[in-house]
Structure formats: C-alpha cells, structure tokens
Design brief:
The protein contains nine helices and 15 strands. The chain has 326 residues and is α+β, with helices and mostly antiparallel strands. It binds fe (ii) ion. Fe (ii) ion binds next to loops. Keywords: Iron, Metal-binding, Oxidoreductase.
Amino acid sequence: MITELAKSYDTIEDPELIRSARVLAASLPVHLRQFLEEYRLEEPSALGVIAGLEIDESQLGPTPRHWRDSQYDSPALPQEIFFLLCGSLLGDVFGWATQQAGRIMHDVLPIQGHEHDEIGSNSLQHLSWHTEDAFHPCRGDYVALMCLKNPYDAATMVCDAADVDWSALDVDALFEAEFTQLPDNSHLPDYGMDDAGDPAVDLLRARSFELIRSWNDRPVKRPILSGDHESPYMALDPYHMKAEGWPARSLRAYEGLCRQIEANMKDVILRPGDCVFIDNFRAVHGRRSFRPRYDGSDRWLKRLNITRNIRGSRAWRPAADDRIIY
Ligand SMILES: [Fe+2]
C-alpha cells in the first residue's frame, strides 16, 4: 500500500496527501491502529515507539547537508508516507510558517555552522531538554521522530512526567500563571526562513516571524503545569526562560522541577526504521552531543508536529484546512 501511494505523489508536502492521510491510515493493520489509539487515549507512557519499518540505507543516498529542498525527490518517500499515516492517527499534523520554510515534515540533521547553536541542527553541543514549542499556545500534543540514519548512536533524551515525584514538589505553585517562556531559536528568521517564491506567502511569514520576535519583549505570564494536580501536564523550555521578576516561591518550585527532570532523564537511541511519538504534554526531550561527519553518512531523522485540536489554532491559520500556523 505504501509503495503504491509513493508512486502517486511527488512529495510528502502535497496538500492532497496530507488532507487524505487519516482516511488512508484506516488501511493500516488493525493492531498498529489499536496501539496508537491506546497510546493516545490511555497515556500509558510518554513515549510510543513503532519499530521495524524497513529502511535500505543504500537506497537512501547521502544525508542532505540542509533541510532546504529535501522534500523533493525524496528517496525516503515511502517511509515518510508511513510516518505521516501513523501520525495522523494521533491527530492532525501541522507546521509553522516560521520553521523550515513552512513545511509539515521537517528534517532533523546536523548543519554545518550550527554546531554550537541551541537548535536541533546542532551537534557538538547537546540540545537542552524542552517541551516542543513550549512558548506557543498552539504547540503540538505530540512531536514525532522517524529515524533514517543514526550511525554513531546519538542519544535522544526523554523524561516522562510519570517518573517525576510530584508529591515532593510544590505543584500548586507550578500551576500558577507566574512563569515567562520566551520563543526558542528554531523560530528565528536566521534558521527557519526561506523564500516561498510567492509574495503573499512571504509577507505572511514575515509577519509571523515579527509576531514571535515581539514576544521576547512582551512575554506572557503563564503556568508550567496544567491538567490533573496529581499527574500533571507540563510545558517548559528552561534554555529559553528568564526567571526575572518571578516570585521566590515560583522560582523555588521551578528549580525543584528542573532538578527532578534532570535526575529522571533517560537516553533513547533511535535506530533506522524507528518511529517515535513523544507526548509533548507528558514528556520533555533533548539530544546528547555528537561529532558530525558531513560526509553524507550523518544522523538523519524526519519530524512531525501533531495536534489533537487543530481548531485551537484557527485564529492563526488562513483557512480551516490550512495546516500552517502563521
Ligand atoms: Fe524538540
């Protein structure tokens, strides 16, 4: 089925393919659909892994040097379609105008010149643990990764909220709207910009970059935790937080949470063919440093953002079926 579908589309970004994804996913094996439905509804773990997808590394060709244009003529299109269909069973996939030129499926690979930057395309520096897009009210419920290559076993780090001892923390303080979260670097024009070739889209993107940039000057106060006090959801990205002006109790509670998260961080090594779904409400994630090679053999992942409530971002999208947040 996946091979046949790959013959019908030129790129994973084809809006018709994205729109059909959930209907097409109904043809996936029932045990696979059941697994994802249980993961979604019961929240048994902050991490769901589907392993065993066939990847022929010789067919993949070299790891691209940049995400730009890698959505065309992709040697991994069948795997990308499988990944898209699985992700669509958890919710609606979406993208950001300010990330990877408004693409839905991102590339995660080391980029020359980013080695020491705080961004997913860095390498020699670890990527600090975070909630994906923690600063944005439309952040996804899941961030999903599909591994195509990981020759040096670079470790993804994950802390599951279930491993945090909430009874030892000042949970009430973390539920208060006393915390400020700044936008992360991945939404800066230096990293996410590319010419769309359409002046109207370029204008919308420029506005979106400007809006997000303005949040650096006027950060909104909000809580770190939400949901159930005994088993909360969390949203934080400490690298992009400034504790200035926080009440002393809030700061103590935040530092306690950070210590617990660091003590409970686990390494997950993605193998080619692994599709990993991280619950962005129940886990924070990061990546350990590694030495890039830039010889075509580097670590190469695909990434999807998935929301369970696409209507929640309607004010940010030009049309009901547009998946890009501006
Ligand atoms: Fe991330």
